[in-house]
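Can you make up a polypeptide sequence alongside its tokenized fold?
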Amino acid sequence: MNRSPLFGLGLLLFSTACFAQTTPGDSQTLQALLSEVRQLRQDLQATTIASQRAQILIYRLQGQEAAVARASQRLDEVRDKLDRIQAERKHLAAEVKQDEDFIANSENPPAQQKVLEDRLSQLKSELESAEDSEQQEQAQEIDAEQHLRAEEAKLSDLQDQLDRLDKALENASRRPGSNSQ
């Protein structure tokens, strides 16, 4: 009878010790789970960084699109103004030619001749001024075109960066072992 309480006590102690032990398979499973959690955390960090970069690029892209639109609008305004100046210059040139022909082909009294010559002189002065304005506007047109091309090049660079980021994210999602499948 003495043995039975000892046997019960031994059985109780032995079973407790057995439950506390882990098998080598459990340890490997825990290590695999821990490795998977670390990989998930790294993937999440990489995705967060890529998302932030994409947002920054999109913001910059929107700003650059606005800059291109402004440069394009400026170029259109300069071209419109240049067209008006050229039309005015052509009109003045036609008036000058008409007045010169009229003065050369008609015999006017000296008083009327003086008035016609004064008007011709004024038209020539206006024509010269229009030609100067045309040259200035042509220079501004060239400047506006160069500015537009520079802004478009910046926009193209940003679009290329966004495309590369998109391809990198697409490739990352396709690689073996990726968790986004």
